[in-house]
Amino acid sequence: LSEAAWRGSREIVLTNALAGALAVVAVDGAPVGEGRPGALAQTIATALRDAWGSLPAVERGRRGAQGAEDA
To answer: What is the distance between the alpha carbons of residues 68 and 71, in angstroms, rounded to a whole number?
Structure first.
């Protein structure tokens, strides 16, 4: 993706396994879109929370290396 393309974006959303979805509201001091999280970021964040909430605890990383039940 070219710099011109992402600088002209209405929204930029970063995703990862730890934080889920994070809206980028500014780059180098210049606002992205309206300078606040948009509908896409909210939709992605909600979908990830819902999906992760349906996983067994071990897959969500809520257990230690040996597991809380084993301790």
So the answer is: 5
Nearest by Cα to 14 from 22, 2, 6: 22
SS3 of 12-41: the string is EEEEECCCEEEEECEECCEECCCCCCCHHH
What totals of helices (H) and strands (E) does the chain contain, helices first? Answer: 2, 4
Q: Residue 8: phi, psi to the nearest 5?
A: -95, 5
Q: How far apart are the C-alpha atoms of 42 and 3, rounded to whole Å? A: 24
Question: What confidence tens digit (pLDDT) does each residue in 33-51 have?
Answer: 999 999 999 999 999 888 8
pTM for the model stands at 0.67
